[in-house]
Structures are given as C-alpha cells and as structure tokens.
Amino acid sequence: MPESPQRVLLLDGDLSFRGSSLLTLRLARGLERREIDTALVCTRVAALDQTLLQGVRLHCIPGYTVPGWGRIVIRTLYRDIRREPPDVIHLQDCRLLAQGRWLAERLKRPLVVSVSDHAEAAGLNLKTASGWLRALVCVSESVQSWIAPHPRLGEIERRVILPGVAVPAQSAIRAPLEGGREPVVGMAGPLEIVKGASFFLRACHRVVEAGHDIRIIIAGSGPEERSLRHLAASLELTSRLTFVDGGVSMRAYLSAMDIYCLPSLQQGLGVMMLEAMALGRPVIASGVGGVQSVIEDGVTGVIVPPSDSRALADRIMELLKSPERTRQLALAGQQHVREKFNEERMLDEMIHLYQEVSVASGKSLLTLAPQSRVGRSESPPGRFVSDEKSGPAQESV
Fold first, then answer.
1. Are residues 298 and 349 in the same domain?
2. Band of pLDDT at residue 396, cut at 50, 70 and 90
3. Which pTM does this prediction carry?
C-alpha cells in the first residue's frame, strides 16, 4: 500500500457559516487525528461557532485572493513553507486554482482541488491548469456532472468523495417532537437567494394559518437577511421567528429543531443537512442536485419540489401530526448518515487519494500511524507553516 503523506496544506478563501467550510474544518481536524501534519490557510474567519475551530491549526493570511496584491502574499506563503513543503496541496475552493497552481509548480507537489457545488463545477477553468493538478474531488455525482468537457480531464483523476460528519451517541440526543413545548421548525446556512429561505417562511406561514403553534429558527447570515426579516414581518411571523448568527453553537440550535428544512433551489449535496440528520433531526429537503443521493423519500427523510412553499407546508404538517412516524424517520436518517456519510470513511478515502496522487508524482512519503492523537500536547515535528504566534484555535502567519 502507498505510504501516507506526512504534511498536507489545505488552502481556502473565507471560512464562514456554510457547508463547504464545515467540511473543510472536519477534514483538517480529522487529518490531524490521523497523525498527518495539517495546516489550514484561509483569508479570514467570519461568523463561525468557535468550537468548530478547536483542533484545527488555522492560519489567516488576508489578501492572497486579491488581484495583484495577492501575488505578493502567496509568494510570502511560499517562502514560509518551501524548506519543509507539504506533500500534498489541497484547494478547498476551486476559485483559488491560480494560487494553488503557482504553489504546486514551485514546490513540485501534487495539487488536489475540491468542487463543492454546481456553480463551481460549471465555472472550473482548466485551460491554464498546471500539470501538477492531479485530482478533482466532488461532493456528489450531481456536482461532478457539471464539470465541462476539456482535453485535460483525461489526465486528471476525478473522484466523488461523499462528505462525512460525526454521529453522537443516541443517548445524548433529544428525540424530536417530544411533548411539553412548541415544535420548532428550522433551517440553517448562508442566507442567499439560492437557499430558498423565502419559500421556507411562506411555508411556515401556511402552517401557522392552518392552526399549528410552532416556533421558527433561521440560522445563518448573508445578503438576504434584511429582506427575509421584512418578509417575516409581512407574514406576521416575527414573534415566532428567531434569527441565529452562525457564531452560536451549531449543535445547540440544530438540536433545538424538531424538523429541519432544506428548501434550496440548487444544492451540491447538503452538509448542514447531514449535520442535522446526524443529530437525529427529521429532514424535509428540496429534491435538487445531490440531495437525492442522500434522502430516500419517506424512508430517510422527505423530498419536496423546489420553490414550492405549499408542498413544503403540507409535509411539515404531516410530520407535526405524526410524532411517532417523524421520530422513526429521524432514526432512519441518522442511521443512514452513520453508515454512508460518517467522518472516518471520508478521511480514509481522502488519505487514499493523497497517497495515489503522491505516488503518481514520484514522491517518497513517510509512513504515519493511522491512530488518533488523543491527549497529545506537544507540537508535531516538522511543522511546515510557522506558528510561533499560535493561539488556542487560530494562528496568524
């Protein structure tokens, strides 16, 4: 079997409250647990639950995505890592392909690029891609199908690696729709038009008009927040609705929901949906993109047409009226995530890909034990990004 990489550089833009950022942080933590020296470099961290940053060696370097100035910044990063370079460079945002290509060519290291949604896949420009680009990793078959044909694709490994999340012990999770309180219906993610939050609010309005006394949570922030607040006021939902910033504990507000809704108009897969399912939340989701590779309608969740607030409202009311069926749906969804979308499987597949691209690049890598780092306090040898100013969760370069 090929040897495991000793060092991995994860390169991203802004880390924010969206599924792709949560996935990047899980990958960074998991690689460290597997004894792989991992640095995550980003431009900034915005509105994220600080507990999500624990166990991640994070370096914020503002400016490397800025045209012109970014070339100076990326050269500074290069000087910092060239003496002990990573074995693999993994771009978490394919819009950083130019920066990743520049580093890969000078360090002579394989480049892996993650593609998390359909817009990224459609906009992927391989015309100027370096020969060091070894693999494209997509979160779903649906996203992969949007990559435009290109002569270079025959030279590049294309692989779907399904996202993975952690499933807590069942005893630690409150069952949905337990008696004694108002049911909570919610959604989470960046507040952008494509996420369909306006349809969610209109669906909740229909549920209330039908006589159901519910609480509503919208977790996240973004350009649509102001218009969503206005819409909620016009629908007379303000007294029932709570907007939660992404910096609040993700587990706390997902666990508070009795029904989780994903009303997206388009969706690469739905990492936030997986997080909710892992916490035993029943899910109602739009049947778009990669969602249908996760949800089997009526078995592991409920599928509704996109941009259809009436259908969404009808399904919410069906679940509210049948608590026992709703809890069975939640348990089935949780078990499905445990079996197919667990974090350790994702790490195994990603490390195996790193091994393959490294061997293809003719590199000799050091073997590292796959066991987790438990209770380790000392610094790992050979850190390839300076962290003299490191803090408990976030470091500056």
1. no
2. very low
3. 0.88
